[in-house]
Amino acid sequence: MTRYLLTTLLFISTTALAQNSSVPLTAFAGHWTTYRNGTTMGEYWVPKDAHTWLGKSYQLAGSDTVFLETVVLAKQGEDVIFTALAFGQNNNEAVSFKLTSYTNGTFTFENPRHDYPKRIIYQFTGAGQLDAYVDDGNGGNRLAYHYQKK
User: Fold this and answer.
1) Per-residue pLDDT tens for 43-57?
2) What's the predicted TM-score (pTM) here?
3) Neighbours of 85 (CB within 10 A)
4) Less Cβ around it within 10 Å: N or C end of the chain?
5) CA 95/CA 122 separation, integer angstroms
6) Distance (Å, rounded) from C-alpha 141 to C-alpha 11?
Protein backbone atom coordinates (compact mmCIF):
# COMPACT_ATOMS: atom_id res chain seq x y z
CA MET A 1 0.00 0.00 0.00
CA THR A 2 2.81 2.42 0.90
CA ARG A 3 4.56 1.69 -2.39
CA TYR A 4 1.32 2.44 -4.30
CA LEU A 5 0.87 5.72 -2.40
CA LEU A 6 4.46 6.82 -3.04
CA THR A 7 4.19 5.93 -6.73
CA THR A 8 0.95 7.90 -7.01
CA LEU A 9 2.45 10.94 -5.27
CA LEU A 10 5.53 10.82 -7.48
CA PHE A 11 3.34 10.61 -10.60
CA ILE A 12 1.23 13.59 -9.48
CA SER A 13 4.33 15.67 -8.67
CA THR A 14 5.98 14.82 -11.98
CA THR A 15 2.78 15.62 -13.89
CA ALA A 16 2.45 18.99 -12.13
CA LEU A 17 6.05 19.88 -12.97
CA ALA A 18 5.62 18.85 -16.58
CA GLN A 19 2.45 20.95 -16.82
CA ASN A 20 4.20 23.99 -15.34
CA SER A 21 7.12 23.80 -17.74
CA SER A 22 4.81 23.94 -20.78
CA VAL A 23 2.22 26.43 -19.51
CA PRO A 24 1.23 28.81 -22.32
CA LEU A 25 1.74 32.22 -20.71
CA THR A 26 0.93 33.81 -24.07
CA ALA A 27 -2.75 33.37 -23.17
CA PHE A 28 -2.41 36.49 -20.98
CA ALA A 29 -1.26 38.70 -23.88
CA GLY A 30 -3.14 41.90 -24.55
CA HIS A 31 -5.55 44.34 -22.99
CA TRP A 32 -8.51 43.02 -20.98
CA THR A 33 -11.34 45.22 -19.65
CA THR A 34 -14.41 44.85 -17.46
CA TYR A 35 -17.09 47.05 -15.97
CA ARG A 36 -17.61 46.30 -12.27
CA ASN A 37 -19.50 48.25 -9.60
CA GLY A 38 -19.85 51.26 -11.89
CA THR A 39 -16.15 51.37 -12.73
CA THR A 40 -14.17 50.39 -15.81
CA MET A 41 -11.24 48.21 -14.85
CA GLY A 42 -8.58 46.48 -16.87
CA GLU A 43 -5.39 44.48 -17.10
CA TYR A 44 -2.70 44.87 -19.70
CA TRP A 45 -0.12 42.11 -20.31
CA VAL A 46 3.05 42.30 -22.43
CA PRO A 47 5.99 39.92 -22.81
CA LYS A 48 9.32 40.88 -21.28
CA ASP A 49 11.11 37.82 -22.67
CA ALA A 50 10.39 34.16 -23.49
CA HIS A 51 9.73 33.29 -19.83
CA THR A 52 8.37 36.50 -18.32
CA TRP A 53 5.21 38.56 -18.76
CA LEU A 54 4.54 41.97 -17.21
CA GLY A 55 1.05 43.07 -16.23
CA LYS A 56 -0.64 46.17 -14.89
CA SER A 57 -4.12 46.50 -13.53
CA TYR A 58 -5.98 49.79 -13.43
CA GLN A 59 -9.34 51.43 -13.00
CA LEU A 60 -10.74 54.57 -14.54
CA ALA A 61 -11.74 57.36 -12.15
CA GLY A 62 -13.46 59.95 -14.30
CA SER A 63 -10.92 60.85 -16.96
CA ASP A 64 -7.99 59.63 -14.82
CA THR A 65 -6.35 56.22 -14.90
CA VAL A 66 -5.50 54.86 -11.46
CA PHE A 67 -2.97 52.02 -11.49
CA LEU A 68 -3.82 49.37 -8.88
CA GLU A 69 -0.97 46.89 -9.16
CA THR A 70 1.89 45.62 -11.26
CA VAL A 71 2.45 41.92 -11.84
CA VAL A 72 5.34 39.78 -13.00
CA LEU A 73 4.38 36.36 -14.29
CA ALA A 74 7.53 34.29 -14.73
CA LYS A 75 8.71 30.76 -15.29
CA GLN A 76 11.38 30.06 -12.67
CA GLY A 77 12.87 26.64 -13.25
CA GLU A 78 9.95 24.22 -13.18
CA ASP A 79 7.65 26.71 -11.41
CA VAL A 80 5.51 29.56 -12.66
CA ILE A 81 5.32 32.44 -10.18
CA PHE A 82 2.76 35.29 -10.15
CA THR A 83 4.24 38.23 -8.20
CA ALA A 84 1.94 41.18 -7.52
CA LEU A 85 2.72 44.59 -6.09
CA ALA A 86 -0.63 46.13 -5.08
CA PHE A 87 -0.19 49.83 -4.47
CA GLY A 88 -1.02 50.82 -0.89
CA GLN A 89 -1.27 47.19 0.32
CA ASN A 90 1.10 44.77 2.06
CA ASN A 91 3.35 47.66 3.11
CA ASN A 92 3.96 48.20 -0.63
CA GLU A 93 5.82 44.89 -0.81
CA ALA A 94 5.31 42.33 -3.57
CA VAL A 95 3.50 39.06 -2.81
CA SER A 96 4.19 35.89 -4.79
CA PHE A 97 1.77 33.10 -5.70
CA LYS A 98 2.88 29.77 -7.18
CA LEU A 99 1.06 28.11 -10.05
CA THR A 100 -0.44 25.01 -8.46
CA SER A 101 -2.68 23.93 -11.31
CA TYR A 102 -3.08 24.48 -15.03
CA THR A 103 -5.86 22.66 -16.86
CA ASN A 104 -7.72 23.57 -20.06
CA GLY A 105 -7.03 27.29 -19.91
CA THR A 106 -7.45 27.65 -16.15
CA PHE A 107 -4.45 28.90 -14.16
CA THR A 108 -4.58 28.59 -10.36
CA PHE A 109 -1.97 30.45 -8.29
CA GLU A 110 -1.78 30.00 -4.52
CA ASN A 111 -0.02 31.40 -1.48
CA PRO A 112 -1.52 29.86 1.67
CA ARG A 113 0.63 32.11 3.92
CA HIS A 114 -0.80 35.36 2.54
CA ASP A 115 -3.72 36.91 4.44
CA TYR A 116 -5.93 37.62 1.40
CA PRO A 117 -6.15 36.56 -1.27
CA LYS A 118 -4.68 33.12 -0.83
CA ARG A 119 -5.70 32.02 -4.33
CA ILE A 120 -5.90 33.75 -7.73
CA ILE A 121 -7.57 31.98 -10.64
CA TYR A 122 -7.48 33.04 -14.29
CA GLN A 123 -9.87 31.12 -16.51
CA PHE A 124 -9.79 31.72 -20.26
CA THR A 125 -13.37 30.77 -21.15
CA GLY A 126 -13.55 31.47 -24.87
CA ALA A 127 -12.46 33.75 -27.66
CA GLY A 128 -11.67 37.04 -26.00
CA GLN A 129 -13.14 36.15 -22.60
CA LEU A 130 -11.28 35.87 -19.30
CA ASP A 131 -12.70 35.27 -15.82
CA ALA A 132 -10.49 36.12 -12.86
CA TYR A 133 -11.20 35.19 -9.26
CA VAL A 134 -9.52 35.93 -5.96
CA ASP A 135 -10.53 34.13 -2.79
CA ASP A 136 -9.50 32.79 0.61
CA GLY A 137 -8.14 29.53 -0.81
CA ASN A 138 -11.35 27.58 -0.17
CA GLY A 139 -13.66 29.50 -2.50
CA GLY A 140 -14.93 31.77 0.27
CA ASN A 141 -14.92 35.56 0.19
CA ARG A 142 -14.57 35.30 -3.60
CA LEU A 143 -14.38 38.30 -5.89
CA ALA A 144 -15.03 37.72 -9.59
CA TYR A 145 -13.94 39.79 -12.58
CA HIS A 146 -15.23 39.02 -16.08
CA TYR A 147 -12.97 40.52 -18.74
CA GLN A 148 -13.28 40.96 -22.50
CA LYS A 149 -10.23 41.29 -24.70
CA LYS A 150 -10.02 44.76 -26.14
Assistant:
1) 999 999 989 999 999
2) 0.83
3) 15
4) N
5) 17
6) 33
